[in-house]
Amino acid sequence: MMLLSTQALRRDFGGIRAVDDVDFSVEAGSITGLIGPNGAGKTTLFNLITGLEVPSSGRVRFDGKDITGIPPHRVARLGVSRTFQNIRLFREMTVFENVMIGRHYRSRVLPFAKNRILNALLGFLLLKREERDIVLAARRQLEFWNLYELRHELPKNMPYGKQRELEIARALASEPKLLFLDEPAAGMNPSETAELMGSIRSIRDLGVTVVLIEHDMKLVMGVCDRVTVLNSGRKIAEGTPEEVRRNPVVIEAYLGSGA
């Protein structure tokens, strides 16, 4: 089943076309890689899908709904979560508090009763249950990423690789259907990257579809089911990792015509 698709998606910035009529699709339950040289338009495509940018033209469909141009908070409520190329953590909040914030969109609206005393009592009881659910969900994510022992630490005091893992944990706290990872292995050493590969597979096994931008080709080729390649805003190739690896157009985009 196709979970996400774009049709002729375009984004212009003045005279620069950052994304040029891109058709991009993601099957439910898959891990999809989005690769290309620097400046290829990968992050801009992420931004168009997740609502941080509004397309100049084209459409975006997610889970059977047209989500073209709707704001990020509405995209998140539909079940799309993401991380960023430049880490965006709340650095003065603890590790635990950061993940709790990621749970915000799963909070429920409290019922309202006409009787003010009854309403106050219901509100108190439901609020306590809601707080418990948020704490438990945050703990599950921190334990999954082996970060629970650092729960009282401030992110700014953590190694860069751990900050990356924390940002993914926060994104997963909302229990998304689709998770976008923008260069998740950036700043990680080889052993951390190898561990990340296993974690991404585990995320998919939990029922979350994953799309990632990544320059580490070992990670992309080792974990992705399908790969789409952008260059200068246009889609130039897509297929299995092996098909993309052997594609002469992709080789030329990365290494030049002499390759």
Sum up the structure in keywords.
9 helices; 259 residues; globular; Rossmann fold; alpha/beta; 40% helix
Task: Write up this protein.
- Helix 3 packs across helix 4 and helix 4 (116-144) crosses helix 5.
- The chain has 259 residues and is an alpha/beta fold.
- The chain contains nine helices and ten strands.
- The strands form two sheets. A six-stranded mixed β-sheet has the order 6-7-8-3-9-10, sandwiched between helices. Strands 2-1-4-5 form a four-stranded antiparallel β-sheet, covered by helices on one side.
- CATH classification class of the largest domain: Alpha Beta
Q: Helix count, per DSSP?
A: 9
Low-confidence stretches: none
Shape: globular
How are the strands of the biggest sheet laid out side by side? 6-7-8-3-9-10
Topology diagram in text:
Elements: E1 2-13, E2 16-27, E3 31-35, H1 42-50, E4 57-62, E5 65-66, H2 72-78, E6 80-82, H3 95-102, H4 116-144, H5 160-172, E7 178-182, H6 190-205, E8 209-213, H7 217-223, E9 226-231, E10 234-239, H8 241-246, H9 248-255
Parallel strand pairs: 3-8, 3-9, 6-7, 7-8
Antiparallel strand pairs: 1-2, 1-4, 4-5, 9-10
